[in-house]
Amino acid sequence: MQSKTLKILSYGSMAILILMMMAATFVERFHGADTAQRVIYHHPVFIALWAVAAISGLTLLLRRLGTKRPVTLLLHVALVLILAGALVTHLTGRSGSIHLREGEPNATMELDDGSSVELPFRMELKEFRMEYDPGTTQVADYVSELVCAEEEVTISMNHIYKREGYRFYQADYDEDGKGSILAVSRDPWGVGITYTGYLLLLLSMVGYFFEKGSLRQEMLRATRRSREPGRGRKPWAIVLTVTGIAILVIWFFGAFPKGPLMPVLRSPLLFLHMIPIMVSYALFGVTTILGVVGLLLPAEKSDRLVSVSWRILLPAVFLLTFGTFLGGVWANISWGNYWAWDPKETWALVTLLVYSFALHGKALGVFRTPKAFHAFCIVAFLCVLVTYFGVNLLLGGMHSYA
């Protein structure tokens, strides 16, 4: 297959996937999450498009292996592994719930598809309780004390129980306080594959900044040059620094949930998850400002700003990637599922994929034109605005508090 055909398949399928994910969030808003899952996220066409994008993109990369850095190949292999893990989870994983009442042993797991299966062990709820912040009525945690195969177990928010490949999470409770509903998942292969992809992704992103000719080395050389006698700081560097800090402060004012945190958010992973994402949004904001300026400048100066924007986009995309996938790890710890196609998750992924197009400027000729690149940065920032504001105001979901 010719490289041109592979390029069309890879980038074309990815563009269609982005449009489908955008549409899916509105389908969920007006017709419910089950409908969005059925007609888009779990539809064979959607899954096939991911496979086409992954296989054609990796094949194209392997054909150009001699001109690519090793960490670039590692990064793309990591992404393919993450997709493979998601597919394995979809095909072989099981998820559902078990309803426990105090003093009534139960071993029946209700699956998400409406069927049921017997667990290889019985569970009995001894006590369900809500714990409160001292001196307040604010719930700090939901706790289930139970016995499983003669083992005393405590399950609470961010504190799961594992047994024989099954994982149990505190999900809900009965209004009378005498019953507890535990989410249950069993995914013997998918999680391991996905986490391997996460690890390789992290290693490749870190490794990129230590390679010869990397952005980190360019920044160090630029710093040394700025300290040479007779060389002052360039005005645009000062402007970018001040602008970035200002945008970051603005983002942070509204970034974190206001008031007491709900129990599931009481984890140190909250800040590790959100801080890199907020920094990436600030950097995307800077590229948007540069885009506006670049459209107004003459061609030569506009071209110089492309180089500046690209150097900002790379760490911004990496930070968004890190924050998003760390959120997946946290979700798996808290809810038993590292990806739920919640509108905020989906739009974060959309934003990540949209900006990644600009990082493939050598393959996509349109980005070689400075004005087109700057216009793209301006339009792409709409994805950030939808992710940050639009989901909260219009689409809702589990993340609508942030």
Folded structure, characterized:
The structure is a single chain. With 402 residues, this protein is α+β, with helices and mostly antiparallel strands. Among the domains are: 92 residues, Tick-borne Encephalitis virus Glycoprotein, domain 1; 170 residues, Four Helix Bundle (Hemerythrin (Met), subunit A). 59% of the residues lie in helices and 16% in strands. It has an 8-stranded antiparallel sheet. A hairpin with a 4-residue loop joins strand 2 and strand 3. Helix 4 runs antiparallel to helix 5.
Main features:
alpha+beta, Tick-borne Encephalitis virus Glycoprotein, domain 1, single chain, Four Helix Bundle (Hemerythrin (Met), subunit A), 402 residues, 8 strands
Summarize the structure.
The chain is of the alpha+beta class. The protein is built from eleven helices and eight strands.
Order of helices and strands: HHHHEEEEEEEEHHHHHHH
Overall shape = elongated
Work out the number of β strands. 8
Largest sheet at a glance?
A: 8 strands, antiparallel
**Rg result:** 24 Å
